[in-house]
Amino acid sequence: MPVRIALIATPYPLEEAPSPPLGLAYAAAACEAAGATVRIFDFIVSKYTPEKLRNVLDAFKPDVVGAGSVTMNQLEAQRIMRDAKSLRPSTITMMGGPHVSFDIEGTFRSCPELDLIVKGEGEQTLQELIPFIGDRKAWPTVKGIAFQADGGIVTTEPRDLIHDLDSLPLPARHLLPISRYLALGYPVSIITSRGCPNKCIFCLGRRMVGFKGRFRSPALVVDEIEQILSLGFTRINVADDLFTANKARVRELCGEIKRRGVNFGWSAFARVNTVDLETLRIMREAGCDCISFGIESGNPEMLKRIRKGITLEQARTAVAWCKEADILPHASFMVGLPGETMDTLSQTQDFANELKIAYGYHFFAPFPGTTVREELDGYDIEILTDDWSRYDANAPVVRTSRLSPREMIDFVAEYDRYNKAIWDETKKNVREGTCTDREYLLVEGDRKLRLVFRILSEDLIEEFACAGRDGSDPVDLLSASVAGRTGTDEAFTRKILQGFIDAGFLRHSLAGGRYRYYWTHNRDVDTLPISF
Predict the structure, then answer these.
(1) From CA 238, how far away is CA 192, in angstroms rounded?
(2) Neighbour-count burial for 113-149, b at 16+ CB within 10 Å, e otherwise
(3) Are 332 and 293 in contact (CB under 8 A)?
């Protein structure tokens, strides 16, 4: 009998732009390639409760329950592992991802219900492990894992990085609740390469996927893009650590997109010292319309301290080239870097304003495995908490000798107040009918996004049931229910829900005299054999 594996997509907040979980889909594909029967139970776009977990585990009867997580939702993933072990004590529980890879002892200590951790790149490890995962005596022979045994922790030999990325099966997106993600509307992430040669003290990229770039063939990348578009998505985000590191390959990939006539919008991350005007123009011709740069600070000494390896002049030039190429540049900056002061923050603010582009602030967070956390004494930084739920970059978790958490909060609050004033004015223009087309689209898009995420994360569709009456319109009944629970205008709610019905994301049944709606799995599959 094939091994039965239930993979859990751990809940994620709306502020983190939840999209189909790429790492989990790669893990699922690896498990399928090893002969396992796999299901993904996605609690990013569905409400998590122990009762729901019980229902799907009782129906699926998995041999293994696994979860992926990052630091910010690590505690939530651990809670789900505890629930799974409580519900099915004989089930093997495992986790993977950047946090657990570099906090093995801490993870097992805080979650003794966890049996096994897959370290680093997990696809080849899973393909080797899955065929005999039920035989714990064989675990020590598998490279790249850690597990609990005889009251201690066993960490096996490290596994080499995957040399040929083209050998990996495509992410198992057929197991994800595509209709829900289409309704939410965020871009789908892909990777075209792995590896990062840079030495930023706050980043795990180099340690997680190595310093040497490994690249997928352009033909296979575009095959995956076409597969994603066939599911109904229209936007893609290239999530490589360093997409533009190899300009010749970027141009080859863009050429393949154009050669096949694949039309879609896409965005990418890049460093300001790895772009040039010609490459940006080629990217734009292939559909790229937005690039995000991590600039981090407007103070040159701070950039040196964090080993960013860029200059402010390079940032100015990269932004100017993006504008010339008709690509929207976006910048992110950090607050609370080692040695940060109010003066350095003021310089960052001045530089951000000078660029005249959209930008955002994130609070600095020393994640497990980063240079700054492991070499703490060498930096002017004090870690204030190891409550991983606070490591979401939205609140300070450190202080420096000359900058307090309160000063960091006040600095970002001033930025937020400025943006809120602009946003409030925009919404006022929409209410009064004096808005531009762009303002209307922004406000209505935000309104829709927040409503849809509430519908998904609170199970408002699943919890709706209404007695059928002669002549009653089930869409009206559903709209009234959702509008009442969310405080949203009923006409707006009905418009959104009717759009989902027309697109095939939602369907209804009338049984026992009661209307019920449900999410389809995707445009080709009504429901999976086991689903929420």
Answers:
(1) 7
(2) bbbbbbbbbbbbbbbbbbeebeeeeebeebebbbbbe
(3) yes
Tens digit of each residue's pLDDT (9 = 90 or more) over 419-446: 999 999 999 999 999 999 999 999 999 9
CA distance 7 to 113: 16
For residues 389 and 75, the answer to whether their CB atoms sit within 8 Å is yes
CA distances (Å), origin 411, targets 311, 335, 339, 342 = 24, 9, 16, 9
Please state, in angstroms and rounded to a whole number, the distance separating the CA atoms of residues 62 and 163: 31
From CA 55, how far away is CA 50, in angstroms rounded? Answer: 9
Pairing of strands 145-149, 152-155: antiparallel
As given in the structure block, the two tokens for residue 125 are 């490890």
The answer to whether the Cα torsion of 101, 103, 109, 111 is positive or negative is negative
Q: For residue range 323-355, list pLDDT tens digits in order.
A: 999 999 999 999 999 999 999 999 999 999 999
Backbone angles phi, psi at 432, to 5 degrees: -90, 0
Integer Cα distance of 199 and 503 in angstroms: 46
Chain segment 174-218, per-residue pLDDT in tens:
999 999 999 999 999 999 999 998 999 999 888 889 889 999 999
Whether the CB-CB separation of 117 and 101 falls below 8 Å is answered with: yes
Number of H helices, E strands in the chain: 19, 20
* The pairing of beta strand 92-96 with beta strand 64-68: parallel
392 contacts: CB under 8 Å, gap ≥ 6 = 13, 15, 16, 72, 365
* Cβ–Cβ < 8 Å for 272, 243: no
Mean pLDDT (the chain) is: 95
What the block records as the tokens of 531 is 């689903």
> How far is it, in rounded angstroms, from Cα 177 to Cα 40?
9
Q: Does residue 287 register a pLDDT over 80?
A: yes
Q: Which of 282, 126, 293, 123 is nearest to 218 (CA)?
A: 282
- Write out pLDDT tens, residues 21-57: 999 999 999 999 999 999 999 999 999 999 999 999 9
Q: Counting beta carbons within 10 angstroms of the beta carbon of residue 434, is it exposed (0 to 12), middle (13 to 18) or buried (19 or more)?
A: exposed
Alpha carbons 45 and 62: distance in angstroms, whole number: 22
CA distances for 474 relative to 41, 423, 492, 493, 515, angstroms: 28, 35, 16, 13, 7
Max CA separation in the chain (angstroms): 74
Q: d(Cα 65, Cα 71) in Å, to the nearest integer?
A: 19
Which of 95, 44, 40 shows the shortest CA–CA distance to 71?
95
Segment 368-377, tens digit of pLDDT:
999 999 999 8
The C-alpha atoms of residue 219 and residue 253 are separated, in whole angstroms, by 8
Instruction: Please tell me the predicted confidence (pLDDT) of residue 56.
Output: 95
pTM for this entry: 0.95
Q: How far apart are CA 303 and CA 312, in angstroms?
A: 9
DSSP string over 359-388: EEEEE----TT-HHHHTGGGSS-EE----G
